[in-house]
Amino acid sequence: MSLEAGYAYVMGNLTRDWETKEIDTKNGPRTLYTCGLAYQPKKEDETQWVNLTIWPDFDNGSTDQGRAVSDGSHKGVAVIARGLLDQREYSKDGVTKSAWELKVWQIAKVLRAPKAAGGDHVQQARQANVPQSRTSRVENEAPRYEIDEEPF
Description:
By secondary structure, the protein is mostly beta strands. The chain has 2 domains: 6-109, CATH 2.40.50.140; 113-152, no CATH class. It is built from 3 helices and 6 strands, in the order ββββαββαα. The chain has a 5-stranded mixed barrel with strand order 1-3-4-6-5. The longest helix is centred in the middle third of the chain and has 9 residues, at 64-72. The protein is globular and about 50 Å long. It starts with 5 loop residues before the first strand and ends in a 17-residue tail after the last helix.
């Protein structure tokens, strides 16, 4: 399976920490947030590398989204990103190569069940001091919530 240009969701692991990049535009300087993502839909597929870019808010120039994402994620974190995917070609050492770029509109961390030796997710969660209500779904019980905790 390969990527196709257009609107896309891409899921993978961040390959480096977020960096800021200043560019000059006709509306003045803008701060972009950039990072890389390793995308591999199936184990037998070749890993594809995608450059992620978070642009400032179009209406007001705010970089709040980029700053929040940068502060909340780092190299190795699994994310799913939605945006406009584009492919560009470049030449390196006389060889034409291509690169994928995603202009990120939305991005979120991917939550995964903790891994434990022998597959005992419940025991690992207990050792990590996760409240029982967080592990009860694994034990096929109805979840229990604290009074001040919302169920979503």
